[in-house]
Design brief:
5-stranded antiparallel beta sheet; single chain; Rossmann fold; alpha/beta; 11 helices; 336 residues; 30% helix; binds S-adenosylmethionine
């Protein structure tokens, strides 16, 4: 069961967050700065990220035999910052063959590069790269909590954020928990039921006819699920109490191993962002000190780049993000 009482009463977190984030006046539907106004993704942290994704697109291009038209899909594009950065970073001959799409529920921002097609669904039959940065953590999910008798129940929430327990988790959601996030019988243990994310990812990755589908997110795997879940909220750059009233982002880390299996493709890899970015040439190594005397401006630029690379690959930060990398009809393009 995904909802509890009617629209006026408490509902499951999935229904409540769906309306709070994507309803007519939802958090992500409003105009303005978009996600960048509330939190910092890798895309906002440094142009090095878009540069690395552009290099990944070039490797996919090579693996595809340099097709006449190469697709780049920025899935859950925010304000299209990644698509913009990738187009800017591509070599001219690849950019000339690239069809860029930004897939987003919010409206097209004014002034976006006219080469970027803005849509609410990915195009069918993609030949190229579909890249979803911090999408799946915003696909709403229900939360299960173990009651005093040891039974996992769906958590119901009111618009003011107060919670109570609903019915026992049943059906496909119970099967998902048993397979991916078994809860013990200790009262208070919690889990996010990732089934809607598995389905969303399988549908998005399924639009790639040939090439690569990549999902990047805060993630955990079966070996280390957090015992009380990870439901969280952000507003104006700060973490805040999750309240499904449209005033804040509502997010939870992603069971990327479950998403991987939902779209079982040979050659699938799950790795940390620091490994993926290292494989794409992003390194936090400081420039040699000797450069400071021969080329002071170059040294300062290289130092700034190293600082940004360090942020993108940091332990305890963006470097711990998971990259789910799924090739469709091509070999390994990351190496390593
Ligand atoms: C955390 S933001 C990430 C934005 C951007 N990818 C970045 O990394 O900066 C998540 C975005 O996903 C969008 N989104 C959520 N579900 C979506 C869907 N089904 N289709 C398209 N966009 C979606 C939201 O509107 C929001 O802009």
């Amino acid at each position: 069961m995904t909802a509890g009482a009617g629209a006026d009463g408490p509902r499951g977190w999935r229904a409540a967050a769906q309306e709070a984030l994507y309803g007519p006046d939802g958090f992500y539907r409003r105009s303005g700065a978009g996600p960048a106004g509330h939190f910092r993704t890798s895309v906002h942290a440094s142009p090095l990220f878009a540069g690395a994704v552009a290099r990944l697109l070039c490797r996919v291009d090579e693996a595809l035999g340099r097709p006449a038209e190469l697709d780049f899909v920025d899935m859950a594009a925010g304000r299209g910052e990644l698509a913009t950065g990738v187009l800017a970073a591509l070599p001219a001959d690849v950019a000339a063959r690239t069809r860029a799409y930004a897939v987003e529920l919010a409206g097209r921002p004014a002034g976006l590069d006219h080469r970027i097609e803005w849509r609410t669904e990915p195009p069918a039959g993609i030949t190229g790269l579909l890249f979803a940065n911090e999408w799946l953590d915003n696909v709403p999910v229900d939360v299960a909590e173990v009651d005093p008798a040891g039974v996992p129940r769906t958590v119901l929430v009111r618009e003011d954020g107060t919670e109570r327990l609903g019915e026992p988790v049943a059906g496909a959601e119970a099967a998902w928990l048993a397979r991916w996030w078994p809860l013990g019988d200790e009262e208070g243990l919690r889990a996010e039921v990732g089934l809607p994310r598995d389905r969303s990812w399988a549908a998005a990755a399924g639009t790639v006819a040939r090439g690569l589908a990549v999902a990047v997110d805060y993630a955990h795997t079966a070996a280390a699920r957090p015992p009380f879940g990870t439901l969280a909220a952000f507003r104006d750059g700060r973490e805040t109490t999750p309240v499904p009233d449209g005033s804040c982002d509502i997010t939870a880390h992603v069971a990327l191993d479950a998403c991987a299996e939902a779209c079982a493709l040979p050659g699938t890899r799950l790795l940390a962002q620091r490994e993926a970015l290292n494989a794409l040439g992003v390194s936090g190594a400081r420039p040699p000190l000797a450069l400071a005397s021969t080329d002071p401006a170059g040294y300062v630029r290289a130092l700034a780049g190293a600082g940004e690379a360090a942020e993108l690959t940091a332990s305890g930060g963006l470097g711990d993000f998971g990259w789910l990398v799924q090739p469709v009809g091509i070999g390994d393009v990351l190496g390593g």
